[in-house]
Specification:
This protein is an alpha+beta fold and 155 residues long. The protein is built from 4 helices and 8 strands; from the N terminus they run H-H-E-E-H-E-E-E-E-E-E-H. The chain has helices at 12-16, 28-34, 63-72, 148-152, and strands at residues 43-49, 55-61, 76-79, 84-87, 96-103, 110-116, 131-133, 138-140. The protein has a 4-stranded mixed beta sheet with strand order 2-1-6-5, with helices on one face. A two-stranded antiparallel sheet has the order 3-4. The longest helix has 10 residues, at 63-72.
Length: 155
């Protein structure tokens, strides 16, 4: 039994602030019970290339998508536009294999370290973060690696 098992669910993430790597934590299921999914039942998930640190994309996960990702090690998101699970790469082949998953200190954001096959962005770029901004202008910082029509067919 963990010292955290006796803590009220709404106080768990606060209590985890004092945790150390030597502590035994509650099960993943118990932690997911208190994760702060938004009013739509979604959690923002940031995908980062595990070996380079490159931030690839941000998407949403519901509990089902997160549990599937943790179980299969293949990243699954929740598509708000389609209102269904979205297994990354199911149409493009550009999959993400999970290396690690970590919740932030508030339990309201997830960081996924992944091994990305090809581009992560639907535009064919490696990363979705390609519009660079400064105080005066915006610039495009990368070109597509693959034509989006080759990934998804004509729309």
């Amino acid at each position: 039994m963990s010292r955290f098992d006796k803590i009220e669910p709404n106080a768990l993430f606060k209590a985890l602030e004092s945790a150390t790597p030597a502590d035994t934590l509650p099960s993943t299921g118990k932690l997911l019970d208190v994760v702060r999914f938004n009013e739509d039942g979604l959690l923002p998930a940031i995908a980062q290339q595990y070996d380079t640190g490159e931030v690839l994309m941000m998407a949403w996960m519901n509990r089902e998508a997160l549990e599937e990702t943790l179980t299969t090690q293949r990243v699954c998101y929740y598509s708000r536009s389609r209102q269904k699970l979205w297994r990354k790469g199911e149409t493009s082949g550009q999959q993400q294999q999970l290396k690690t998953a970590a919740l932030d200190c508030d339990g309201d954001t997830l960081l996924l370290k992944v091994d990305q096959t090809g581009p992560a962005c639907h535009t064919g770029r490696r990363s979705c973060f390609y519009i660079s901004l400064d105080a005066h202008k915006a610039l495009i910082s990368s070109v597509p690696l693959i034509d989006p029509e080759a990934l998804y067919g004509k729309k």
